[in-house]
Amino acid sequence: MEGIILASAAIxxxxxxxxxxxxxxxxxxxxxxxxKLAALFPVFGGLTLVGMYLILRYYGKEYIQLILQxxxxxxxxxxxxxxxxxxxTLGKSFSVxxxxxxxxxxxxxxxxxxxxLLAWTLAANSISMxxxxxxxxxxxxxxxxxxxxxxxxxGTDVMVTVATGIDIPAKYVIPNFTKPGRFSxxxxxxxxxxxxxxxxxQRFDVHNAQTHKDKNxxxxxxxxxxxxxxxxxxxxxxALYYFRAAQPALLYLSPASILAPLLTAWYRxxxxxxxxxxxxxxxxxxxxxxxxxxxxxxN
Length: 299
Prior knowledge:
Blueprint: H1 2-23, E1 31-33, H2 35-59, H3 62-84, H4 89-109, H5 112-129, E2 130-132, H6 135-155, H7 158-165, E3 171-175, E4 183-187, H8 189-212, H9 220-243, H10 250-267, H11 271-276, H12 280-298
Parallel strand pairs: 1-2
Antiparallel strand pairs: 3-4
Helix pairs in contact: 1-5, 1-8, 1-9, 2-6, 2-7, 3-4, 3-5, 4-5, 5-8, 6-8, 6-10, 8-9, 8-10, 9-10
Subcellular location: Endoplasmic reticulum membrane
Organism: Schizosaccharomyces osmophilus
Region (Disordered): 280-299
């Protein structure tokens, strides 16, 4: 039951974040990930993870817990405030008070509900603001994280130690209904990283609808990629139940999130369009680079 609840929360978060990504109009809040950054993601992630593991093992968790909890709580609070998006002065005042109250309750009690609430806003806003610039970049990112997740879960105790040793709003947590005092969890990385591919497919669907001027807008890429993500979560839960041990969720989620768009494009005979599609930010960047190149040649 806990796995079903966590999976449902993850699917809802990915869908909401993907919807928000198509409505994001402020260029300053859009952060593009290219192939180079995608390849470096697991490297920096691994170094950070190992660093936290060493601190936990040799120095204890008090100091790093305090630092990460403060930073994570602040970041989540800002995302929560952004989600409320108040317009009036009264609305802004109420939103600030509500955000402060929820954040204070989490920091004071570490309750799983307020932790999940802050984690949700952090994940949904990350999917909304972070943009992989193309399908190829998304495939590189998920393929690298596929190897990263397998190594740090199966090859070492680093991932499990850090995930269970530090209490910050960077995971969904549900109390075990049959074993009081124990919790089931799903890290935000297993939501946000595949979610970036889902959000890209959502924007690809919008792009196709605008290109073909189709009033009856369909979203085949969003639907099938989200379905594949759901299937990956289901397989993860089955593996957890069968092996009774921690599982690298991206072992199942990464291939599902890469293959779904590919198979959809192959079936619809749109493979060329899929690989050619670039997010708006990358297109504008390319234009600026082209203009700069022309100016240099002229000079």
